[in-house]
Amino acid sequence: MDFFKALIPGGLLTFVVSALIGKGGSRGGWLAIQHYYIDGHSIYWSWILFAVATGLAWVLFAITPK
Fold this sequence. Notes:
Layout: H1 2-23, E1 34-38, E2 41-45, H2 47-63
Antiparallel strand pairs: 1-2
Helix pairs in contact: 1-2
């Protein structure tokens, strides 16, 4: 259950960081930020950053007392 809860903050962190770096014209180096067009809307996204952010959130949810 902690993993599914971690998807939300991982996705939000990825969305915000990718948007800030992508709007500046950078690809983020090893983050490999991509510019996607979905149904007329453009977003910036990094699958590597999403995996790292979700993993970090998962660990934080796992170690906090319930």
